[in-house]
Design goal:
DNA Primase, Chain A, Dna Topoisomerase Vi A Subunit, Chain: A, domain 2, Rossmann fold, 9-stranded mixed sheet
Length: 725
């Protein structure tokens, strides 16, 4: 073996060794920038584009977000790995991702980039010097090199091209055996990209594949091109792919295409076709020639004349009326009948705060897990359920569960069928989705769940980067498709999803006309779900709720009237309460009126710039608004605090309020309470006082079990203890 010394150049001083090298480097850098995202997805198939940045785990291409590449602006193409502070430009990242050094492998780096971009490699002879050397053999130095990687990015083999006087030759190097030979079986080229794409183009040779890759086409080739032994090539990575074969314009090329097509059909390709090179092109014309001459390759691949070897299944299936009429196959069984929840469907369950929807949901899920009918809703069998809930802490969740009334034999069936999280503080972004999928797999390692319940939507909502929130249609669709559906399709595509959501305030007449218009957030939510349920309390003086149904996959279910009686949810007569309409009911209604009056006064007084401690409020409103004596008002405040309707703010300074002195609890506050404050002195001319409003957040709440004053975990989330009892 002969040896030829090479000039091992440092990127930082390369311009000193060749006068025009800077222009070459700039051309390559510009070419990489022009195809920036294609370059990044080629180097890092596991990477993700999000907004104006590209993310991958590290320079080895593992999934993650530590390495960030800028896609826009003045820093376009620059990158940084925040795990180790490495960084640089596109030439640096190309070299490091290939296991090369810009300092020592500079020529090879430029050759690889040039070949990938479809540029002719620089016609130059390296400066001779007694320095480090690169190996050659009797064929002379290699003129091109292509790496064959596994789908995960591991190096399998290298193919070297030589151009001796006798003509071009190719020699493979098997990395596994460390020998000059082809691996057995022979891999396909560009496997990391093949693994992530549906449509693949098969060509003859690495040069042709690289030329198409530079255009953004996912191309591959068999090792040795038209001379590749069909039976020694591993075609399995093409299973399920739509394959277009682009042969060279000669007889060996067409024969190879036909043989490869048959092998790919046997390997399980979804479709296979051979595009016919135009007759006007010269003999041996190939994909690389097409790229060099500016031929419209993309149109040719998509619409060129072709021989169909295996047709693809229709992307949009259609059925004739006759087919539908003649099909008597059974329907897939309901997850929850009748058609309340069907396989692969989404059910949105809505209700106003304090209506008891979380309590209702937990009782419903427990019955489904036990295989028991609940208010006429029938499970197909004892169902496996994962309940992701973001409101109730562990101890109160436990309390609720123990209050559910099921026969002992039913409880036995449900014990291992229903898994629930305690209160989670997880947003369903990419990381949150991954956590949920892992938690579900841990809960149900043998068989996947039948139902995934998420409660409530607003506490886990993620509408993507820069999302305006759940009221935006695009953000809502992003959440449903990229978050909820990802969980469903990863865990079990035949499961059903129950998504719990709040309702907004509406006029009574409008609600009666269409209760599902009350669902909060974007209107796209209603257009997306398969089933809808809304729990509402039409009469605040009554404990009876109305349960409305909207089914897309089945006939309508009449509205049910339900009530929780002796700890058990029951269907009741719409026109007659099961509890007595006597003196106790009137007292109950009066009690509710006074509670609502207190809450409204606290809210309105804050709007006038006034906040109260419990004693201050009782003294100020004794004998007013029908609230009764000071002692009675304090008792009602204590009840409201135990139920979570009233909480306390002990941090007076941000609101400009005077110190509460020795008050144990601090200022009273209710949900969404806004304190109006004066800004500056009154206008000298008009006397007008300028004001602003500041939301009052609670710092503490009263424990309903012990009466102790406890700190609020999240002041943005208002929890009503009444729903937890």
């Amino acid at each position: 073996m002969t040896v030829e010394t090479l000039d091992w150049m440092d990127f930082n001083d390369a311009s000193q060794q060749r006068a025009d090298l800077g222009e070459d480097i700039q051309a390559l850098r510009s070419g990489l920038l022009d195809r920036l995202e294609a370059v990044l997805h080629y180097l890092f198939p596991a990477g993700q584009t999000k907004g104006t940045k590209f993310y991958v785990g590290n320079i080895d291409g593992t999934p993650g977000k530590s390495l960030v590449v800028e896609l826009e602006g003045a820093r376009r193409g620059l990158w940084k790995d925040f795990s180790n502070d490495d960084g640089g430009d596109l030439i640096d990242i190309w070299a490091m991702s290939r296991g090369l050094s810009v300092r020592h492998d500079f020529v090879q780096v430029l050759q690889e980039i040039s070949q990938w971009l479809g540029f002719a490699p620089p016609v130059t002879r390296p400066i001779q010097r007694e320095a480090r050397s690169a190996p050659t053999d009797e064929l002379g130095p290699y003129t091109a090199k292509w790496d064959y990687l596994s789908s995960q990015g591991a190096l399998i083999a290298c193919v070297y091209r030589y151009d001796p006087p006798s003509g071009k030759e190719f020699r493979p190097w098997d990395v596994g055996s460390r020998m000059w030979r082809a691996p057995d079986p022979r891999p396909l080229f560009n496997l990391p990209a093949v693994a992530t794409c549906r449509q693949i183009v098969l060509v003859e040779g690495e040069k042709c594949a690289s030329a198409l890759i530079a255009l953004g086409v996912v191309a591959t080739t068999a090792m040795n091109g038209a001379k590749a032994p069909i039976d020694k090539t591993d075609w399995s990575p093409l299973k399920g792919k739509n394959l277009v074969i682009w042969p060279d314009r000669d007889s060996p090329g067409w024969d190879y295409a036909q043989n490869a097509a048959r092998a790919c059909v046997l390997a399980g390709c979804a479709s296979v076709c051979i595009v016919v090179p135009p007759e006007v092109k010269p003999e041996k014309w190939d994909a690389a020639d097409a790229v060099d001459e500016g031929f419209d390759c993309l149109t040719f691949i998509a619409m060129g004349d072709r021989h169909v070897i295996k047709a693809a299944e229709p992307v949009l299936p259609s059925f004739s009326l006759g087919q539908l009429l003649d099909d008597d196959s059974p329907l897939p069984p309901d997850i929850i009948g009748p058609r309340v929840l069907t396989p692969g469907s989404l059910l949105v369950f809505g209700g106003a705060p304090k209506v008891g929807k979380s309590d209702f949901l937990l009782a419903w899920l427990a019955h489904m897990a036990a295989g028991a009918t609940f208010l006429g809703m029938r499970p197909s069998r004892p169902l496996r359920i994962f309940y992701l809930q973001a409101e109730v802490q562990y101890y109160y969740l436990r309390e609720r569960v123990k209050a559910i009334k099921l026969p002992s034999h039913r409880i036995k069936d449900a014990r291992q069928n229903l898994y629930s999280t305690p209160q989670v503080h997880t947003i369903l972004n990419s990381d949150g989705v991954a956590q949920v999928i892992a938690a579900i797999a841990q809960a149900f390692p043998a068989e996947p769940p039948d139902i995934i319940a998420i409660d409530p939507l607003r506490n886990v909502f993620d509408g993507g980067e820069g999302s305006p929130g759940e009221n935006d249609n695009a953000a809502m669709l992003f959440f449903l498709k990229q978050r909820v559906e990802r969980i469903l399709y990863t865990v079990n595509p035949n499961a059903g999803v129950i998504l719990v959501h709040h309702t907004k305030k509406m006029g009574k007449k409008q609600f009666e006309e269409d209760p599902f218009q009350a669902l909060a957030g974007a209107g796209s939510l209603r257009g997306y779900y398969s089933s809808g349920m809304v729990l509402a309390r039409p009469d605040e003086s009554s404990s009876v709720r109305e349960l409305f149904f909207e089914l897309r996959n089945g006939p309508a279910i009449p509205t049910k009237h339900v009530d929780k009686i002796n700890g058990e949810w029951r269907e009741v007569d719409a026109n007659q309460r099961l509890v007595l309409q006597d003196h106790s009911a009137k007292l109950d209604a009066e009690r509710r009126r006074k509670h609502d009056t207190i809450l409204q006064i606290l809210f309105d007084e804050a709007g006038r710039g006034r906040c109260y401690t419990a004693n201050q409020f009782a003294d100020s409103f004794e004998g007013k608004a029908g609230l009764g004596a000071c002692r009675t008002i304090n008792e009602r405040l204590a009840v409201l605090a135990s139920k979570g309707y009233v909480k306390f703010c002990k941090d007076h300074a941000p609101y400009g309020l005077p110190s509460v002195g020795r008050s144990k609890f601090g200022y009273l506050c209710v949900e969404d309470m806004l304190l109006t404050r004066a800004i500056g002195p009154p206008d000298e001319v008009t006397g007008e006082v300028h004001t602003d409003s500041l939301r009052v957040y609670p710092t503490h709440y009263k424990c309903p079990q012990t009466g102790a004053l406890l700190p609020v975990e999240n002041p943005d989330v208002w929890i009503y203890q009444e729903e937890m009892l």
